[in-house]
Write a structure and sequence with these properties.
single chain, 104 residues, mainly alpha, 4 helices
């Protein structure tokens, strides 16, 4: 179970921080991106393990994107369109996770 948490968080950080760099985030905003993912990813993974239903998963993911978007809006220094950034980060990370999970 801990492996699932570590693997999910590690891949999420790689995917979302790469996207954040491409989006143009630097320094403090990159740190913020990492921290909000450390906050939300384990909760989403735990909820997914407890309630592995597609509708529930969609709710968890959308909630995580909303929470992250709020943090980006509130604490981001140079994040233009923080809500869009959050939705795209989470969408890319989730999609790549599905692809990886399909091939494992």
């Amino acid at each position: 179970m801990l492996t699932s948490f570590a693997l999910s968080l590690g891949l999420t950080l790689v995917f979302e921080l790469t996207f954040a760099l491409l989006w143009g985030l630097r320094r403090r905003d990159l740190l913020l991106c990492a921290l909000v993912n450390v906050l939300t990813n384990p909760v989403v993974v735990l909820l997914y393990l407890l309630f592995p239903h597609p509708v529930a998963t969609a709710v968890w993911e959308c909630t995580a994107a909303a929470v992250e978007g709020w943090y980006y809006r509130r604490y981001g220094q140079n994040i233009r369109t923080p809500w869009l950034f959050s939705v795209l980060c989470n969408g890319i990370s989730f999609s790549l996770g599905l692809v990886i999970n399909h091939f494992l």
